[in-house]
Structures are given as structure tokens and as C-alpha cells.
Amino acid sequence: MQLKVPALPPDETMQLRVAAESGSSHLSHSGESRPPGHRRRTAAPSALSRLTPGLRRLRPRYPRPGRTGWRRWLPSWRQWLGAALTFVGLSTAALGVAYATTDIPKNLNSYATQQDNVYFWSDGTPMARTGWVRRQDMPLKDIPEDVRWAVLAAENASFYSDPGISLSGVTRAVWRTLGEGDTQGGSTITQQYVKNVYLNQDRSVGRKFTEAMLAVKLDNRMNKDDILEGYLNTSWFGRGTYGMQRAAQAYYGKDVGQLNVSEAAFLASLLKGAALYDPALSRANHARAVERWSWILDRMVDIGRLSPAERAEYRQFPEPLSRARGYDTGKQSDYLVELAAQYAKKAARLTDKEFDLGGYQIYTTFDRRRETALTDAVTKARKKASKDHPAMARTAHYGAASVATDGRILAVYGGPDHRTQGYNESNATTVPAGSAFLPFVYASALQNGVRKTRDDGPVDVTPETLYDGDDGIPVMTPEGPYWDRSGKRVAARNDGGRDYGRISLHKALALSVNTPFMQLGMDTGLDKVRRTAQAAGLLASSFGPQVPALSLGSARPSAIRMASGYATFAAAGTHVEPYSVARITRNGSKVGLAEPVSRRAVTAKVAEQVQSALRSAFSLAHPATASSAPRTTGKAGTTQDDTAAWYVGTAASVSTAVVAYRIDLTKSLEPLPLKGIAGTPADSVPYDIWSGALGLG
């Protein structure tokens, strides 16, 4: 049942609504009546109430009314605008605070205060100072304008107009850092200068932000020319050089004021990374350098700093010097510095760039007295060769090294003068060891035993074990004679074709009889012989094919490695990797060095048996000297093709190796026949050098 109310006329409806409203106006909030005509006062609208409608429109309402599909979930343009304005405001405030709180450091870092690296003898006295790492400041007025603009064209053409940073570049660099861990690119010259003199080389977003803040502040405080001058004097150009002046000297042998625009363009390319653009390092580097050099010259044309006609004059790449002079002593000690620098960087895990910053004190293992004696002995031999064999003396080379049983390299002879011959003869792997290699075969057989058949186990070998010492005996395998690849049966040969009959291994080594050891190597196993030699100190890279000739010294070790190998036998079978640096400090602080590797190569018993045979070899060849030096060992080494003559031996816990050979460096590194320049077995030049260096001659 429903109650129906009759509809009222429109005018009556209006009257009823007005009556209700007018009636309510006569009541107060407490329900009391108010006089007719009385109106309630209302408060003025507040600022918040005026903003409320706008805020309501900005407040997200999802799904949005009046929209269909995916558009119901998108913010309105007012919301987008509000978020953007808020972000810009907060970012501006944050950057303002960061700029205000960033202070330019008062002290420059080590990248702006380059020093020499100083090398010391083992007694602590100075030996040498490296030369090119000394930074030489050049006033901007002394740097030609073309040189400056070559750098600006390559690195920052807008340098004089930018605010010190490139926003697009910084954004790109930060993106690369976050995405790829690489901050290459994106820096203005001002930013690079800040990095050079105030910051470290850490690659992080934080460092990049600090760099940008400092660059802006520095740009507001310093003259642009001063910034450019500082940048050109602190940037790294490779080859141990910091600054454009040192780079000009290292790559072109001239002062920066003498550079032409083409040479300057090449030097500017090095700022992108000397390790990638120094042509002397590789063919790939050369190709990159030429490409970037050409681009920089074209870029100078684009920015109006070089006319097309001037650009046309530079079509030929300005080849820099093939190598920079690394050391400025010009003496034998340059070879010592070279060895020590290589070892220091490896043992201290320093990059070339870090080492080139300088400030290191390198305390070497080189003994001044021994170095002088060794150098004098070789110099004497050189003079004698020039007198007796003037034609062949021009291609004569002498490598020598003394290594202690604990691995210290005490002295080396690297060549006549590092300035004229950078080739280090003490560290060269050019000529075979010849019969100087026989002790390693002997040691391996004593250590491992021999096998005469495939099925039988190893049989022990002693110094008294007999082998056939006749000349021309065939080399045997368990299956029969050994045939080479050309189908010829391999036979062992003795010097002078001499026959010795059945001979003990001890005596065979003392007399340097080849044939027993060629067969002994086969019986022991050439792989074992090689492993023993490597364990004793020879490098794997010095070995050639694993054929019977290996036992007669086909390996090509350096004088340093041969001395180190014989030192292993004098050290009771324990080998210590040769090293040339005892300790390093940098500005008084100790720099950590990796310890030289130590390992047992052979047992102490085997080492003493080898030493005993080598003492016999020395006393048989030089009885007068041996009587006054009973613990001295030594052995000569010759090659069947007459390309090398060695003498290696130990005295007072020091092993010394000397090698004489001939090479025409203007043609190749292939050794030439000695033709008597190394003397005879009775009057051996290597022995004379060896005994002179040890004070035994």
C-alpha cells in the first residue's frame, strides 16, 4: 500500500522552499529564534580554502572520471606540471646548497706535483734518477696559439664560453658510469683540470658530481687562460711525461715553442689516452693516432682556427720519435734502472701512469762493487776484441749477470751504453745455452731416474752410473734409434769428435762430454728435463721443440736466468725467482711488494751431487785458481754451430753467467758464428770476464 501525495503547483513548491529557508533563519545554532531580518556573519575565506579546489584537481583520483580505457589511469596535465615544477625547485635548491658548501681544496694532489723516481744501490747510496717524469711548467704565453687550439679543438672547443661544465657531457658520463662503469668523455677542460690537481682518479658518480661543482666554482674564480695553462702543465701524455713541454721533448725532441700545428695535433690526441695513441706501442695504436690526428686538424678548420689552405699543408702524419729516452744518466746504470723499474711496477702492482707520477724511492739489490767489477771485465774484453778482431768486434755482444742464491740480482752487464743500445744483453734470450745446459739434464736424471723400456718402472741414477761417451753414437728410444722428421737417424756428437768410452755421469759432466747426456735426456724423459730446468729458474718461453737436441742446450735462456738456474744448485735445490728491488717507499711511506716466489726444484742431495760435478769441472779446467777457491764451481758452454760461448759458475753463494755472441742488430736478431772472437777452451773470453768479475783472475 502506498501513500500518494498530490503534486503541488510550481508556484506553491517555490513558496514552500522559501518558507522553509526563511523559517530556519529565525533559529540560532542553539535552537533559539532570531529576529526576522537578522543575518549570520560568515568568516572571510582563507588562503587554504582558496587553494583547496586547485589541490583537489592535482590530487590523483584513479580511475579518473570522464576518461575511458587506459587514459583513466594517466595523471592530468596539471599533475604532470606540478611534479615537474617540484622537481626543478628541489633540484635547484639542492644544487645551490652543494655549490655553497663546496670548497676548493687548498692543497694540490700528487697529479700536480710530479717528482723524480730515485734509485739506490744496495748500500743505500743514490744510483740514478729518472728524467722525463720531472714536470716542467710552461707559461701560457710560451705555448704557441696553434698548440693551444689543437688541444681545445680535440678536447673542448667551447672552453672560453662555457661555464666550466657541460651539462650534456656530465649527464652522458653519469649515464655511462651507472650503465657501463666507464666515465670516459663528458668533461670540459676545466673539469679535467680539477680532476688533475684536486681529485683522485676514482671513477664514480660521486667523484663526477664533486668535479662538476668544483669546476663551476673554479670557473667563476679563475681566469680562463690560467685554467688552460694549468691543464696543459698537468695532463699526462704517456712516456713518463706530464705537461705539454715534457711531451714535446719526449715525442719530438724539441721544446713546446718549436712545435708546428701538425705535431701539436698529434700530442693533443694523446690526451684521450696515451696507451691507445702512442704509435710506438703497436700498429693498432699507430692507426688510431693517424685517424685522430687527422680529425683534430679537420676540427680546427671547422671551428675557424685553421684555414683549409693551411690544413692542406699537413697531409703527412708527423711521426714521433720511436722511443723516448727513459733515463738521463747515459751510463751502464740505465740498464739497471730499466730492470728495476720493470720489476717495481710488477711487484708493487703499479700501472705505468701511477709509476710515472714519481715520488718513489726504489732500493735495488744491485751491488755497486760487483757492478763495477763486471762492467770493467766486459769493457776489457771489448777492447781486446776491437784490437784483435776489429771487423767482427762491431757485431760482438756480451751479456752477463750475477745472482745470489736468495734471488737478488747483484750485477748485470746490459750493453755498452743505454743511450745508443737499449737492447739489454743480460736479459736477452737470443742464443742457445749449449753444453752449459748439461747440469739440468744431470739433475733431472738424478731426481727422477731413467726408463730403458716402456713397461719397466724408473731406475735410479747415481753419479757413478755409466753411459757411452763415444762420438757419433745413435740416440736410442725403447723401440730403437730415434729418427728425425727428415728421415735421418739422430746421433750425438762430442766437441772435436773425441771418444771417451764408458764414462760415469759425474765425470761426463766434469769433462763436458755431450753424448752421455743426449741419451740420458731421452732415458729420463725430455718433458721431465724441461720441467726440472724450469723449476730451477729457466723460463718456459726459452724452450723450443721437445727433441733430443733439447738435452744439449737448444733452449735460449738469458744470462740472468742461467745465473739463477745455477744458483738453485748452490742453494741446496731451492729456487728463488730473481728480483732487483728490495723495497720501495713513496714520500717516506712503505709501498707493498709481492714476495719473490720460492720453490724446491730438486732435493738437497741432488743439488749437492750437481755441485760436486761442477766443482770437478772447475778444478779440472782451472786447477791453479781452484786450489785457492775450493768451493767454487764453474762450467763452460759451447754450441755445435759456434754461435755462443758461455761460462757459468758459483762462488761465495753468488752465481755468475757470462755469454759472448755475435749479432748484427741492423739486420736481424739471428746469431752469427763467433769465428774465434770468444777465444778457445784454453783461453776463453767468457771465463776471463767471469773470473775478472769475481776477482779470481
TrEMBL record:
Coiled-coil residues: none
This protein's UniProt keywords: Carboxypeptidase, Cell shape, Cell wall biogenesis/degradation, Glycosyltransferase, Hydrolase, Multifunctional enzyme, Peptidoglycan synthesis, Protease, Transferase
Chain positions covered by the region annotation Disordered: 19-44, 451-473
Source organism (scientific name): Streptomyces ferrugineus
Compositionally biased residues, Low complexity: 19-30
GO terms of biological process kind: cell wall organization; peptidoglycan biosynthetic process; proteolysis; regulation of cell shape
Top-level taxon of origin: Bacteria
Catalytic activity field: [GlcNAc-(1->4)-Mur2Ac(oyl-L-Ala-gamma-D-Glu-L-Lys-D-Ala-D-Ala)](n)-di-trans,octa-cis-undecaprenyl diphosphate + beta-D-GlcNAc-(1->4)-Mur2Ac(oyl-L-Ala-gamma-D-Glu-L-Lys-D-Ala-D-Ala)-di-trans,octa-cis-undecaprenyl diphosphate = [GlcNAc-(1->4)-Mur2Ac(oyl-L-Ala-gamma-D-Glu-L-Lys-D-Ala-D-Ala)](n+1)-di-trans,octa-cis-undecaprenyl diphosphate + di-trans,octa-cis-undecaprenyl diphosphate + H(+); Preferential cleavage: (Ac)2-L-Lys-D-Ala-|-D-Ala. Also transpeptidation of peptidyl-alanyl moieties that are N-acyl substituents of D-alanine
Protein name: Transglycosylase domain-containing protein
Protein family: In the N-terminal section; belongs to the glycosyltransferase 51 family.
